[in-house]
Amino acid sequence: MSAQSTIATESAELQTLREKVRDLETRLAQVEGRVAEDRVSIVVFSGDLDRVMASFVIATGAAAMGQQVSMFFTFWGLSVMKKDRQLAGKSLHQKMMTLMSPGSSRSLPVSKMNYFGVGAKMLRSMMKAKNVNSLEEMIALARELNVRMIACEMSRDVMGIRQTELLDGLECGGVATFLADSLKSRTSLFI
Asked: Which residue, 167, 144, 141, is CA-closest to 156?
């Protein structure tokens, strides 16, 4: 084999090798884009005190362990983030929905044995006796730990809940906001 022929063969092999490396780099970038981060995403659909407490225990626990946490409050879960009720300027259905749903986290029922609010009061009393943080203290702790809390815009709109009825500083977003966080999370929960 002549020297020119050897150089041409080596050049072709080098070109093939470069193409394989570029292909591998592209594939690696795609895989890296799909690797989950140290995140937890939680959809808070329930407006029941016991279920909401569980979501905040998980959220604050994960945040305390250094994970990024986002909580997406939708439908009945929005009651957790209400600070008061407003009826003025709402349609009849929206007024009825406002009156029939809890006005704030302090008036959430429990999922079992609520008995017109007695169950929720008993649970809060038992938590206090055991030095367990109240829901309101858990919400404050979550804020201190930089847990991202998002109110679902669509649910808010459908149920006639205004931004001014929600806790101050609460972020509003759609499902795309939640999915963007969820796709990067190792753990996604629906409570």
From this structure: 167
pLDDT tens across 7-30, in order? 888 888 999 999 999 999 999 988
Largest CA distance in the chain: 96
pTM: 0.80
Q: What is the 3-state secondary structure (H, E, C) of the chain?
A: CCHHHHHHHHHHHHHHHHHHHHHHHHHHHHHHHHCCEEEEEEEECCCCHHHHHHHHHHHHHHHHCCCEEEEEECHHHHHHHECCCCCCCCCHHHHHHHHHCCCCHHHCCCCCCCCCCHHHHHHHHHHHHCCCCCHHHHHHHHHHCCCEEEEEHHHHHHHCCCHHHECCCCEEECHHHHHHHHCCEEEEEEC
* Structure tokens given for 180: 């963007």
